[in-house]
Design a protein that fits this description.
This protein is mainly α. It has 6 helices and 2 strands; from the N terminus they run ββαααααα. Bound molecules: zinc ion.
Amino acid sequence: MKKNNFKTNCDKCVKKVSSPKKLKKVNEGYLCNKCRKENRKDHREFLKRDILKIPKRSDLLKGWAEKRKAKEKEQERLRKIYGDAKPQIKSSKKDKLKINILGLYLTKDERLFLYKKLVQGENPLSSEEANKRIKNLTEQNKRLIEELRNKVKTQGEFKKKFDEAFAKLLMEMENE
Ligand SMILES: [Zn+2]
């Protein structure tokens, strides 16, 4: 890394830092801590979406919502033809909740991604320790889903509460 003895403004956000030592040289120039952190975050997102092809949770849920809508439409169509005598396509409340919960468990790719992050981060963990943390997270996630399932009444409420709690779990795992 080239030593910086002169610059005190970040090349990205142009903000002034207290000392040239606070800027580090990367491809884009001399960047402050905050911008480099931001870059790493973007890079992780890129790895997840474009390299590992992990779909966003919100996209998955959207896909399911569309499928459900199509099913309801089909049901409506059948009802018009056969009247109420026609048995409904299975769509109990319990089924719906089960379908939407499926995508909330960590996939193999997501676990792999977390693993790499833990063993390669700034404070790298041993492989055993990383696996233990991911196993803990999986257990906590399972408990969280069960807990919420008994507490919430709607899918919307469930999703909101789950996203909040899961983000918290992830943060705790990284800061442990
Ligand atoms: Zn900056």
